[in-house]
Amino acid sequence: MDRLPLFISGFSGAARRFGGIATQILEDRLELLALELREAKIRFVQALLLACMGVVFSLLGLLLLVLAGLYVLPPEWRLYGLAGAAVASILAGTSVFIVLYRLLGRKSLAFDQSLAELKKDTICFSTKN
Fold first, then answer.
1. How far apart are CA 61 and CA 66, in angstroms?
2. What radius of gyration do the chain's Cα atoms show?
3. Which candidate, 122, 126, 127, places its Cα nearest to that of 25?
4. Of 5, 16, 33, 123, which has the highest C-beta tally within 10 A?
5. CA–CA separation, 73 and 81 (whole Å)
6. How far is Cα of residue 117 from the mean position of the Cα atoms in its chain?
């Protein structure tokens, strides 16, 4: 009879320790997830700013080059000046978008580390020790 309370006490102690470990693991994973979410948000804002800057500077460059070219050139050369200004501004805008594409292609998936840690946890808890 004395063994039953001792068995229940040991079982509840093990359950309490397991619950504490599980809570700590969950807390660590949520902290990692929050960190990765913050990093993903920063990368998104950077990409958005680069895209907006590319569009604005492409349009501004196009406008200024066209106006300057039309002002300086004699009337018979204005069409060629307009074409040159358009090509220059399109090249500038394209270069900004190439940088943006490379930036987005180089980064890993969002929450990649959290997924890797969860896979490790699954393997750890699914194997029999």
1. 8
2. 30
3. 122
4. 33
5. 7
6. 19
- pTM: predicted TM-score of the whole model, two decimal places: 0.46
Q: What is the DSSP string of 60-88?
A: HHHHHHHHHHHHHS-GGGHHHHHHHHHHH
- Joined together, the tokens standing for residue 109 give 């998936």
What digits encode the pLDDT tens for the residues 90-128? 888 899 889 988 888 876 666 667 677 777 777 776 665
Rounded to an integer, what is the distance from CA 114 to the centroid of its chain?
Answer: 14
| Contacts with 51 (C-beta within 8 Å, 6 or more apart), sequence order | 97, 100
Give burial (CB, 10 Å; 0-12/13-18/19+) of 5. exposed
- Token pair belonging to 81: 């000046």
